Amino acid sequence: MADRGGCCPPMDLFRSEAMQLVQLIIPMESAHLTVSYLGDLGLLQFKDLNSDKSPFQRTYAAQIKRCGEMARKLRFFKEQMLKAGFSTSTKPGAETGIDLDDLEVKLGEHEAELIEMNANCGKLQRGYNELLEYKLVLQKAGEFCASAQHSATTQQREMGSRQMGDESIETPLLQEQETSTDLSKQVKLGFITGLVPREKSMAFERILFRATRGNVFLKQVPVEDPVTDPVSGEKMEKNVFVVFYSGERAKNKILKICEAFGANRYPFAEDRLMVNEVSGRISELKTTIDAGLLLRDNLLQTIGDQLEQWNIKVKKEKSIYHTLNMLSLDVTKKCLVAEGWSPVFATKQIQEALQRAAFYSNSQVGAIFQVLHTRESPPTYFRTNKFTSAFQEIVDAYGVAKYQEANPGVYTIITFPFLFAVMFGDWGHGICLFLATLFFIVREKKLSSQKLGDITEMTFGGRYVILMMSLFSIYTGLVYNEFFSVPFELFSRSAYACRDLSCRDATSVGLIKVLDTYPFGVDPAWHGSRSELPFLNSLKMKMSILLGVAQMNLGIMLSYFNATFFSNSLNIWFQFIPQMIFLNSLFGYLSLLIIVKWCTGSQADLYHVMIYMFLSPTDELGENQLFPGQKTAQIVLLLLALVSVPWMLLPKPFLLKKQHENRHQGQSYAPLESTDETLLSEANHDSHGHDHEEFEFGEVFVHQLIHTIEFVLGAVSNTASYLRLWALSLAHSELSVVFYEKVLLLAWGFNNVIILVVGIIVFIFATVGVLLVMETLSAFLHALRLHWVEFQNKFYEGDGYKFHPFAFALLDDEDE
Fold first, then answer.
1. What are the transmembrane regions (predicted)?
2. Residues 6+ apart with CB under 8 A from 129
3. CA 582 to CA 715: how far, in whole Å?
4. CB of 350 within 8 A of CB of 369?
5. Cβ count near 163 (within 10 Å)
6. More reliable by pLDDT, 801 or 212
7. Which of 188, 374, 757, 759 has its CA 20 to 30 A from that of 41?
8. Separation of alpha carbons 45 and 718, rounded Å
């Protein structure tokens, strides 16, 4: 397979790149730098030669742990920066040659400094919040005490004046006696002040009353502005409370209730100087906190300028050590042995990377590069760009191509958007889709560096697929002559004119041809006539069958190219040829009848022709005859179709068995094949016992039987499946007509500006929501099904595995 060229240069996408299994023997002193250069190159997929060892038993487990710890510190810095409102710098790093050990020390110092600053700042902030609450308690409780004292003084004066006005001589003596007895029995009242969350204040009051059986006096005053809680650090609305109680037991109960409700308690003294002292301490703390925050912000700014570069460095180092852990240690413990897959074209680049690594690491011995012979199937690698990658992803979602089999992605670039457009044919809707996609393409540099939502990211990733879909939709819309369901005379005047005024209600008989045939697409005169639906139904149904048969034939042709490429003559003679005969004897013939009917203008009933081709092949066709000798041709085609079924089923299992027997008779010793020949033959190995000494004939025969039945039944069901092109095109067209006539024209007919504006808004939302979003998704999924099931099952095995090279460019942002 060294020469794939021929007359034309090879297509990069048609077959995957030629791969080779290589072995690298790398000296220990240059191993790290070698893997680093190979990561920059990104063209070597390493094999894990230590799969029997756990991650902790591998050589570089300690280094990976170090990198993991550094990554944790970097995540901590990022979290702190986000909390402080800083953004990380995305500029390319100036500090490219930073040493990992120095970085580890620097990160440790920064982390310790930041943790200490956070702890100090937290303590100061808590003290500041406590002082603020204490000040509120002093103010509110002071106001309460002042008002209570004022009312008590007033009351005492009133009582004094009453006593002075009493003329009784005995009264003072009695009062003195009462006072003396009261003073001897007087109970001391204690009080507790603090703040309680306002949402808990009612429950707090209720529990206090129940716990002390009403033997407390509670006074609550709401604080106007939200207060920052010293414990949680959250802003919340609170009430200042004062609880008067009697006795130690009541005090203990109140303290426990305060603790349960998260009420912060503060001492209260009726000293006006205390408020001024607390205010002074608050201002001092505020100054200290601001200075601390400024220092912390400066540190975070310094870290933020280099965080991205440090992050990339740590990720690279961690990935290098992960890769080094996949290498096996030589017996002498002086070399590391690596094996991996690389494209053949990358051989020179890999060797240059090895030489550079040996030179810059001052290694006395260079790394050894050699190609290994193997019977293992290589990975599949396609070189794609930003345009072709989305189409290749559509194919890969079904299954990754087997090594060097024909890639349907080449044809999908055209056939996928075209089949979508057949179902979505409206050049007005196509232009809307095109403009929406153009927004993503124009801003792709900016959007590619941003974090997008799931749906937006998916749409952005497939922007070129949607671009092609919109362009083909404009084309098919011009063919259908529909612009939001309205026809236009774009290319010429209509070829038809009306016989009389009742033309709109008449069938096509009411139209007479007065000009030359409309040059491109459907004549606008068909739209709105009573025969529009029968005419377009017939056109789109027949067109769907033609497109379906053409695409299925393309799939079978690609199976021929696969068989030729892999030198599998059995698949050519007993798969490709009978499949072509069977499909075209029935549905290829139907396609021919459609074209002949279009060209001749015949009135033959094709349903009748196809049904009676099976039921009564010898009957005369009568008025359904489209060309001379049609009956004979149909009998011959029917016989060919019947013969092709056993042709597919029987010979191949017996011939495979014979090949297996010949291969194992006296052929134990054979000359070694070249690498390319080995890989090519191995890629062609199938599941028919090729690699096994015992040949399971029954299993192979059943497999072939299933394959034959699947193709025969699939030929019918797949052709019918392409009728979805007609059905969805009709649905899209009719929905457009409904929205246009029943919303826009109906609103226009009222001659009212408000109704017209509402009608236009409803029309826009219905068009965007239903036709541009839901219908686009529906047509996309149906086009996807036609490619995966109807097209790819004719030739595509899709049982390969992707080439995943070790590349720094592929390091994901989320990787730790």
1. 418-442, 463-480, 543-561, 573-596, 632-650, 754-774
2. 227, 228, 229, 230, 233
3. 8
4. yes
5. 11
6. 801
7. 374
8. 39
CB count within 10 Å of CB 600 equals 11
Report DSSP letters for 730-778, one per residue: HHHHHHHHHHIIIIIIHHHTTT-HHHHHHHHHHHHHHIIIIIIIIHHHH
Q: Say how many residues make up the chain.
A: 816
DSSP track, 186-202 = ----EEEEEEEEGGGHH
Determine the Cα–Cα distance for residues 652 and 688; give it in Å rounded to an integer.
Answer: 11
pLDDT at 234: 86
Across the strands, what pairs with 430?
Answer: none
Calpha distance 50→334 (Å, rounded) = 17
How far apart, in whole angstroms, are the C-alpha atoms of residue 473 and residue 463? 15
Q: Residues 466-497: pLDDT tens digits? A: 999 999 999 999 999 999 999 998 988 888 88
pTM of the model: 0.80
Phi, psi (degrees; rounded to nearest 5) at 27: -65, 150
Give the start-end residues of each E strand in 179-321: 190-197, 217-222, 227-228, 235-236, 238-245, 264-266
335, containing H or E segment = strand 335-343
Q: Is residue 545 within 8 Å of 718, Cβ to Cβ?
A: no
Q: Which long-range contacts (CB under 8 A, 24 or more apart) does 560-564 make?
A: 561/406, 562/405, 562/406, 562/795
What does the DSSP assignment read for 45-104? EE--TTTTS-GGGSTTHHHHHHHHHHHHHHHHHHHHHHHHT-----SPPS-TT--HHHHH
* Tens digits of residue pLDDT in 260-306: 998 888 888 766 678 888 888 999 999 999 999 999 999 999 998 89
Which residue type occupies 433? L
Among 420, 546, 434, 421, which Cα is nearest to 482's?
421
Whether residue 412 contacts residue 419, with contact meaning beta carbons closer than 8 Å, is answered with no
Q: What are phi and psi of 686, to 5 degrees?
A: -115, -170
Question: If we measure between CA atoms, which residue out of 193, 198, 191 comes closest to residue 222?
Answer: 198
Encoding tokens for residue 394?
């559509």
Q: Which residue has the tokens 């695409």?
A: 551
Read off the amino acid at residue 272. Answer: R
Q: At what angle are helices 606-615 and 630-649 packed, to 10 degrees? A: 60
From residue 378, give the alpha-carbon distance in Å to each of 35, 76, 681.
21, 42, 12
Q: Which residue has the tokens 């990658």?
A: 389
How would you label 323-362 residue by residue, b for 16+ Cβ within 10 Å and e otherwise?
A: bbbbbbeeeeeebbebbbbbbbebeebbeebbeebbeeee
HEC string of 689-706? CCCCCCCCHHHHHHHHHH
| In contact, 787 and 394? CB cutoff 8 Å | yes
Q: What domains can you pick out in the chain, each with its CATH number?
A: 14-49+329-379+802-811 (3.30.70.340), 527-662+697-750 (no CATH)
Spatial distance between the Cα atoms of 247 and 250, rounded to a whole number of angstroms: 6
Going by the DSSP 8-state scheme, the letter that residue 378 receives in this structure is P
Two tokens, residue 371:
């190609």
